[in-house]
Design goal:
The chain is of the alpha/beta class and 342 residues long. It contains 14 helices and twelve strands. The strands form two sheets. It has an eight-stranded mixed beta sheet with strand order 6-7-8-3-9-10-12-11. A four-stranded antiparallel beta sheet has the order 2-1-4-5, with helices on one face.
Amino acid sequence: MAERLLEVDDLSVHFATEDGLVRAVDGVSFELERGQVLGIVGESGSGKSVTAMTLMGLTRGVNAKFGGSVKYLGTDLLGISDAAMQNYRGNEIGMIFQDPMTSLNPVYRIGEQIVEAIQAHEHVDRRNARKRSVELLKQVGIPNPETRVDDFPHQFSGGMRQRAMIAMALSCNPAILIADEPTTALDVTIQAQIIELIGRLKNDFNSAVIMITHDLGVVADIADEILVMYAGRVVERAATRDLFYDPQMPYTWGLLGSIPRLDRPRPERLYSIKGTPPSLINAAPGCRFRPRCPHAFEKCVQEPRLEQHVETPGHLDRCWLDVEYKRAHRDSMIHGDASEAA
């Protein structure tokens, strides 16, 4: 049995605002074992990044309210102080933030920022911390790391800045690495290199990875399990192969339909999900995807539970449609026949 590092149980994150209570994350549960890659997928505003930042203790504030639990090796991270959280943030759980250009300090050299991360958690002198920074930059594929360690962020390309962020996240050898949209704004060649790099470093450091993205294609080859989030909730959860070959949630169909396929005839247009994400303050009753779902019916005004409806163990979805109907109608969304889906 692999070591279970993280247990998230019924996590909720709400923010009080002048307009009302924003339910950014509403009842999310999952587990993470050492060596596992978990993909969290959904469009902007679905709660992916808030979930990740809560694991790091970065959403704490006077207007934030939390529920459920986040247990790292048995310790509930939601219940410990900010000072105690410093021992876990970066040291046990590292994070690659979404935009490396805004995450890196533009007036400090790359090496200085990695050295600062190392010295914040370990009792090493500056000379040895700098030596390790050079080794980390070499590990993530930065050419001439002995000289590039003294460069500023603007002297790095987008892909190299992302690699520097990965080096910083790995500087203290964390057990869990969270990658929040690590391939955003990178061309497809660099995307493939970054994904391959994260997979290789996961094996080298014997760590677990949470990969956050809006693109199912990004996690197709690297993730062991995928959570699909919508409006702050998990709407489908399955092993990667099961999710791609037998998706059960219409929202997942829409995400799959937006990915170009090379193994099928080229459609005239890729499928697009109509409408916009719902308000997290005044969510519609029942299924939250109902206002945008072309397959909604009368029962959808009731709130569905995340349950197993197919024979595959561990494949959960939040939908009232029966399995036979889903398998008969989902191709219209996945394969791009928007007219049939409408």
